Structure formats: structure tokens, C-alpha cells
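Hello,

I think I submitted the NDP job twice by accident. Can you confirm which output corresponds to this input? Input:
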Amino acid sequence: MGRVALVTGGTRGIGAAICKALQKAGYNVAANYGGNDDAAQAFKKETKIPVFKWDVGDYVTCNEGIVEVENQVGPIEVLVNNAGISRDAMLQKMTHEQWSEVIRTNLDSLFNMTRPVINNMRERGFGRIVNISSINGQKGQLGLVNYCAAKSGVIGFTRALALESARKGITVNAIAPGYVATDLLSGVSEEVMKAIVGQIPVGRLGEADEVARCVVFLAADEAAWITGSTLTINGGQFMD
Ligand code: NDP
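Support: Only one job matched these inputs. Its output is below.
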């Protein structure tokens, strides 16, 4: 049986592609999701990957959810912190709720999910943690102060934990995707989408599968000397 991998937000979009790619690479995959039961059940039916519902923004439910995953699937060796949301508004119009929903789901979640698994990884002397950041955490974007702050925070978290974990066989890396056609972009108007694609040198949006390949690469046993890095995948839109 392959190593156990848990992917948050694993039932739709980029997370679903990550789950399928890890499964294909031989991992024993579990997928977390937040609330869309229909999508989760359809994903489970299609892939046979077990799905687990809890809010990654809540520390207590993360602890409980991880215990359930470990009881059913096994000790988590690969953790992919992928779940994320956007609540876009210019700061002068942003509500405190929009700010805090994004911070708790996209940044607090890294603490909530990683804290319960890190000691076991350290004891076993092996772990792979891959955190999904964003091009907008690297370069900033108007209307996304909350999202950019969280996604920059993901990169800081990644670097610090990489240093703490380096001698324990645990690597911690981030991936910063550019624009990928998923439900996350459903609120973006056609006109804005056209302008975004115009800024991408490769001339198109990314595919979820293209991001998933990066996760498989970083999760591999052979990727042991890559840690603290941010892998940029954005069709050339921003080079860091
Ligand atoms: P989607 O909206 O397509 O999917 C989001 C997934 O996260 C769903 O499975 C959703 O569960 C889950 N989720 C949301 N909130 C929670 C929560 N509180 N607890 C548990 N699970 C939750 O998003 P994408 O696939 O587009 O995005 C995946 C990641 O990639 C995010 O971190 C995003 O910020 C990042 N990203 C996306 C880009 C893009 O262009 N799409 C670009 C750069 C980064 P449910 O189905 O139950 O709602």
C-alpha cells in the first residue's frame, strides 16, 4: 500500500485533480471538503477516494477529522493544504467578515491542519507538506487584500516550517499557481477574464492537472532536497 496522502478541499477543482494524480502515482488518498456534499459524493463515486467533511478554519474539527482519517486510512505522511476561498472587495468596501473568512480558511487552516500531524511526522522521520499559495500572494492584486495577505502568509509559513522540519525528513513547500479555470473564478466577469488571459504569456488559463503534477513532484520520496521553496506555475504571468 502506498503512502497516505490527505488533500484539503480535495473534492473539487485543483484539489480533485491533486487527489486523482496522487492516486495514480500510487498514494492512498483521502479528501477533505467543506460543505458541498453533492460534489463530494460524485467525486467519491468516480474515484473511490474516501471523503471527509470538516471546516479547515476550525482547529477542533481539524483535530477530530484527522483522527478519523488516520483511523480509516492510516497515518498521514503527505499533507496537501489546498482548501481555499475568495471574498473579493476593495479594502474600503471590505467587511470584517470577508476579511476573516478568507484568513481563517486560507491561512489559519495551515496551522489547524499541520499542527495535529507534525509530531507524528517528526517521530516517523518522514513527511511531505505541500501548501497551495497563489500568484496573487506573490505579486499582490487589487480587490484581494484579504486573499493576498493569506496567500503571502502561506509562503512565510512554508519557509519557517521547512527550517524547523529539515532535520526530521519532512519537506515543506508551496506552489503558487496562476489563474486556473475552476469554480473559484466563477465570480470573475468575462471581460476581466479576457484581460487576465491577455496578461498570460502562454496565452491561456492553467489546467488543474498541471498544478496537480507539481504536487506529485514535491510529494515524492525523491524530492527530499527540495524544501522551503515556492514553485511558480502561471504560464509566465509573474516570475519570482
Ligand atoms: P474551488 O472553489 O474549485 O474548490 C475549493 C475546495 O476547497 C472545495 O473542495 C471546497 O469544498 C474546499 N473548501 C472551501 N472552504 C473549505 C473549508 N472551510 N473547509 C474545508 N474545505 C473547504 O477552488 P480551486 O480548486 O480553484 O482552488 C484550490 C486552491 O488553489 C485554493 O487554495 C485557491 O486559493 C488556490 N488557487 C486557485 C487558483 C485558481 O485560479 N483557481 C489560482 C491560485 C491559487 P466544498 O466543495 O465543500 O465547497
